């Protein structure tokens, strides 16, 4: 005989909207406290919840919230991430400028990206909303609402910050790293250049997700010339500014720094989150795996910035990353062969990044 809670779960499929509303409202806490009650009948309650995404906004809010929490379960995660009909609805609704639950859907999509097969969305298409002026590729639409939707400028009910976590997870796959590095036909813009402007955004979530995305894409070593070129991605100032404070440097150091870092305000502060600072320094480490990258960093005086970051940020991960970067920048290029140095460093960084990503790959809960 089913328990009272299991009976309540059954009411989410009631034809009566008032009953559905009452059931979903009362079940939200149990999506974290007792998730097993939603796994009966071959996950039929999960399927019922996916139907409610199209229901009255308040019912849909409760349903999506529960799906966010329940996606921490691997069985549920797989069911949601491989349900094409549900994904059609989720992508259509999240890109709708009038969707009141767009932020929750962004969180859910970010969780679903932790299922490897979810990477198939790279080729997914749907008609673009007229307000978006994008093309029919879902990835381009998600990136455009992330950019245009910052601080509620596209949808007054959403900021889409959690889509940055979606991008970060997707860029663990080589095909998505390539996507972010190739200009798109509909606007001629390299997708990564749309993200780099948010490395100093006020939202902690947005800054963290963007920093992780940039770092993951930087694992594409052949693309480093594009990363560094001022007329292409030009990533260095967007990585260096968040890790730079209001320290004073010698006149010689200042004059040789990147122009964007030469006339900073006296109240300039570095990113308050040491984990984000660590991510940016690790991106610099990746860009230092080529001789061209190291020489450019020496030319624009990256070392003094790293020196001050090491001194002023009391965080073991930051200091370790700074130490490793300093060793590369201060080393004699003739000490060993280029091929050996780059391969050894690149392999070590990739392994450590995978371990860090496993640590940070947490399911968002509401």
Automatic annotation (TrEMBL):
InterPro entries: ARM-like, ARM-type_fold, Hgh1, Protein_HGH1_C, Protein_HGH1_N
Residue span of region Disordered: 333-366
Organism domain of life: Eukaryota
Ranges where the Protein HGH1 N-terminal domain occurs: 94-278
GO biological process, one term: protein folding
An example Gene Ontology molecular-function term: translation elongation factor binding
Protein HGH1 C-terminal domain ranges (all copies): 283-335
Pfam family of the protein (one): DUF383
Protein family: Belongs to the HGH1 family.
Protein name per the record: Protein HGH1 homolog
Protein's organism: Pseudomassariella vexata
Lineage, opening ranks: Eukaryota, Fungi, Dikarya, Ascomycota, Pezizomycotina
């Amino acid at each position: 005989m089913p328990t009272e809670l299991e009976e309540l779960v059954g009411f989410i499929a009631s034809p009566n909207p008032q009953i559905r509303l009452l059931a979903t409202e009362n079940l939200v806490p149990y999506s974290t406290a007792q998730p097993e009650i939603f796994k009966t009948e071959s996950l039929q309650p999960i399927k019922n919840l996916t139907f409610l995404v199209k229901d009255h906004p308040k019912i849909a809010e409760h349903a999506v919230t529960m799906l966010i929490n329940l996606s921490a379960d691997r069985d549920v995660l797989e069911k949601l991430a491989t349900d094409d009909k549900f994904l059609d609805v989720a992508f259509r609704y999240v890109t709708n400028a009038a969707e009141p639950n767009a932020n929750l859907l962004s969180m859910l999509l970010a969780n679903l990206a932790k299922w490897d097969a979810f990477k198939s969305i790279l080729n997914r298409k749907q008609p673009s909303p007229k307000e978006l002026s994008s093309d029919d590729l879902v990835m381009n639409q998600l990136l455009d609402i992330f950019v245009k939707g910052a601080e509620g400028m596209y949808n007054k009910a959403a900021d889409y910050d959690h889509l940055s976590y979606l991008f970060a997870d997707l860029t663990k796959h080589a095909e998505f790293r390539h996507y972010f590095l190739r200009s798109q036909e509909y606007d001629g813009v390299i997708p990564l250049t749309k993200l780099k402007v948010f490395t100093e955004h006020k939202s902690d979530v947005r800054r963290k997700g963007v920093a992780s995305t940039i770092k993951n894409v930087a694992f594409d070593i052949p693309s480093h010339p594009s990363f560094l070129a001022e007329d292409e991605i030009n990533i260095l100032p967007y990585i260096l500014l968040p890790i730079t404070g209001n320290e004073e440097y010698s006149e010689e150091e200042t004059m040789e720094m990147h122009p964007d870092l030469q006339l900073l305000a006296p109240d300039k502060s570095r990113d308050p989150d040491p984990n984000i600072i660590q991510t940016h320094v690790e991106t610099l480490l990746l860009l230092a795996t080529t001789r061209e990258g190291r020489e450019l960093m020496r030319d624009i005086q990256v070392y003094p910035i790293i020196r001050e970051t090491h001194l002023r940020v009391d965080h073991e991960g930051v200091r370790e990353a700074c130490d490793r970067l300093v060793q590369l920048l201060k080393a004699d290029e003739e000490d060993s062969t280029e091929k050996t140095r780059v391969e050894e460093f690149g392999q070590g960084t990739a392994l450590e990044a995978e371990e860090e990503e496993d640590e940070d790959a947490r399911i968002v809960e509401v």
